[in-house]
Design goal:
The protein is of the alpha/beta class. 41% of the residues lie in helices and 17% in strands. Strand 7, helix 9 and strand 8 form a beta-alpha-beta unit. About 9% of the residues have low confidence.
Length: 235
């Protein structure tokens, strides 16, 4: 474990030239992504706790772009190249903005699905009451998980939760691999297929839920290694 620019991280296989950087999803941390550690011995591996998660505390309010800028500075300070970045869920959006040579998206966020009627009505009620009473009504309307957030991370959550990333996916010009899951309710298989279409590639849909790679990391790692080995950019 090490700290640089306030960011906690772990690196393995330091003697290797090419790097794979792992970015976790919202509410998660680098420990989840370390399920891949044993499968990529030929690469330098960088596991990061993004600001506000794991062992990287922050009092700042972030946007996805600010996360990408912070991590870009961090990687430059380490002298780590952006050869391949693997991003899960929210980490997929940050990975896309970092513009690596090889982008791997695991159930990436970025496609907005219509909210259920119950949620839409709750938002309308929240906005109406806030305009009347002002103040912080979070504890009355937010889920238990959201209520546990610090104020700055709640503001960060509001900044990133409903981002439409279609434009950023379509602007990405390097090679990309998209993997989704059949039973993922947070990022549906259709969402992953939409992202793959924007990236001019095809989505691979595996059995499982939003954390499908935890139950079968070997298969997921093999797909990633095949992608890296067979891509025309591989040098």
């Amino acid at each position: 474990m090490a700290v640089k620019l306030g960011i906690h991280y772990e690196m393995f296989n330091l003697q290797k030239d090419k790097s794979i950087i792992f970015l976790h999803g919202w509410g998660s941390n680098k420990e989840v992504m370390k399920v891949f550690r044993e499968y990529f011995d030929e690469y330098k591996l960088v596991f990061i706790d993004m600001p506000g998660f794991g062992k990287t505390p922050t009092n700042e309010i972030y946007t996805t772009a600010k996360y990408a800028q912070k991590l870009d500075e961090f990687l430059q300070s380490l002298g780590v190249d952006k050869y391949c970045i693997i991003g899960h869920s929210f980490g997929g959006k940050v990975a896309t903005l970092l513009n690596p040579k090889y982008l791997v998206l695991l159930s990436s966020a970025g496609i907005i699905n219509p909210k259920p009627l119950k949620v839409r009505l709750k938002i309308i009620a929240f906005k109406a009451l806030k305009s009347i009473f002002g103040g912080n009504l979070k504890r009355f309307f937010a889920s238990e998980d959201v209520n546990k957030m610090s104020d700055n991370m709640y503001e960060t959550f509001k900044n990133v939760v409903d981002e439409d990333f279609r434009e950023y996916f379509s602007q990405f010009t390097n090679h990309a691999l998209v993997i989704g899951a059949t039973n993922d309710t947070a990022v549906t298989a259709q969402n992953s297929q939409q992202i793959a279409s924007l990236l001019h590639t095809q989505a691979i849909i595996l059995p499982g839920d939003h954390y499908f790679f935890l139950s079968n990391p070997k298969q997921t790692a093999k797909l990633i290694k095949d992608f890296l080995s067979n891509s025309p950019l591989h040098t």
